[in-house]
Amino acid sequence: MVLDATMPRLGGLDALRRIRAFDPTALVIVATDEPDADLERQAHALGAAAVLGKPIALPRLLGALEAVKGASAPLAGRLLVVDDDPEFRQMLQEFLTQSGYEVRTAADGSAALKEIFEDPPDAVLIDIEMPALNGLEALAAIRGVAPEVQVIMISGTENLEVSKRSLAHGAFDYLAKPVDFQYLLQSVETAVMMRRLER
Questions:
Q1: What CATH number is attached to the domain comprising 118?
Q2: 61-90 per-position pLDDT tens digit
């Protein structure tokens, strides 16, 4: 994205700040009529890949893109997958890792709470039907330990009553197995975005 630094109403730096909050992986180059050391410093602090003076010569633009294209983009977000089924847990971990997320896993609610207490993720995907501390009980505990963490509940059956209870107790979303992976990805993306906007 090439972003003009001097736009009317919403200035370029304010726009850059909002873009980076919405999508930290976005590649943004700031263009300005009047190159200024302070503007350049602020733009880089907000995550701009480069600041170029206008009119932008094509070779300079291509050079800036070439310089940053090899750099690894930031991860899309940090997730914790909680499920007592190791195969399902691994499948979710692999899918979400390939989608650009940093993914940790836990086999039960107690292990999940320990992970969240030590290093809160952006979002938790947790199975409802687990032995000992089930998903609904874990949800209440998560809300107490880390209320800012978004929680997506996953159930082996589609149960409207359980869905309502989950959402009423603070879950961000409710999904039934077999999981619709396209919907799951949309839900995770929105949950991570909401978590970052609340920081």
A1: 3.40.50.2300
A2: 777 766 665 554 445 789 999 999 999 999
